[in-house]
Amino acid sequence: MLLSRASSSTMVYAVRARSRDVRTNAKKKSAKDKARKAERAASNKKELESLTKRRESVDDGEDEDDDDAVAAPAPTMGKSAPYESTDIVMHTLALGGSYKAKTGEKLLRGNVLVHEAASALFNAPFVCASHDAEDTFNYGNKAALALWELDWDGFVGMKSTKSADVEDATTQAERRALLDKAASDGLITNYSGVRMSSTGKKFRVENATVWTMTNGDGVKTGQAVRFEKVVRLNADGSDGDAMVVNENGEWVKDVVASPAEDKVVDVDAVKALVAELSAQVEAQAAVVRELKDNGGTNADDDVKAAVSVLLDVKAKLSEAEAKLA
């Protein structure tokens, strides 16, 4: 049955009305979602600021209650650590977020609460450091400060060029190329390069991850690095001790499994084997010479086979002689 023009118009109007309702509801839902996200972000920031203020009030010997309250005894602890400031806490969260975005992995293991992130990263069992877009360090955790032999104020604010030998043009060029590639690619893994502490001690960074940090618009705001092992270099440039960061954020020697104890060698038996193999070498060498004296060449199959046997016996002889060394 065909619908009348009036009925058709009514249905079209109803469909359009429902479409408007759907779009309106979707916009309202989107606005509510944005509002909730903004509220959560504001709540996190407020929590961090509140924690910082409480720490500062405790450091100054102030009571958290009203002015009429009896002042509590001054705490024995010192002032809050620099990494506990609101700016650095927010930077800590940015480091974790950017690392996850670039690598797909967490910077810190486990579930770390917002107000615990700063302490967890500072005392982490690996080096974490970052510099801003002007290549000036703006963060270094406990392991980083110990490695470069600097305190917080000495490290933060230092140009990243000084993390390596400033007089070594090759090292500086390699370092610059690394940062440029990280800026271009966003991420570099398994990096190895030589750096130098503030007292002139050189070390080689092993298996480092370098990533670029960006803001919401994708503009570079800095770069960061994470690694947990270095090899200290001797004065002549040779490898010294391998060092790793332990669970307390402290550098310790890398524990390498002790080599297996040498097996007891039966000297007489080895000497007898050497004599036997030496005789076999002479005999097989004679076979090769005879084949060649009869017109054979290295391209002939029988000569190739004889030479192969000779080389095999010589290899066994070398192994036996090494046991007597």
UniProtKB/TrEMBL annotation:
The keyword ATP-binding applies. Residues 273-325 form the WHEP-TRS domain. Pfam families: MEKHLA. The keyword Ligase applies. Keywords: Aminoacyl-tRNA synthetase, ATP-binding, Ligase, Nucleotide-binding, Protein biosynthesis. One of its GO terms (biological process) is tRNA aminoacylation for protein translation. Residues 32-58 have a biased composition (Basic and acidic residues). This is WHEP-TRS domain-containing protein. The lineage of its organism: Eukaryota, Viridiplantae, Chlorophyta, Mamiellophyceae, Mamiellales. It comes from Ostreococcus mediterraneus. GO terms for molecular function: aminoacyl-tRNA ligase activity; ATP binding. Residues 1-11 have a biased composition (Polar residues). Residues 1-83 are annotated as: Disordered. Residues 59-69 have a biased composition (Acidic residues).
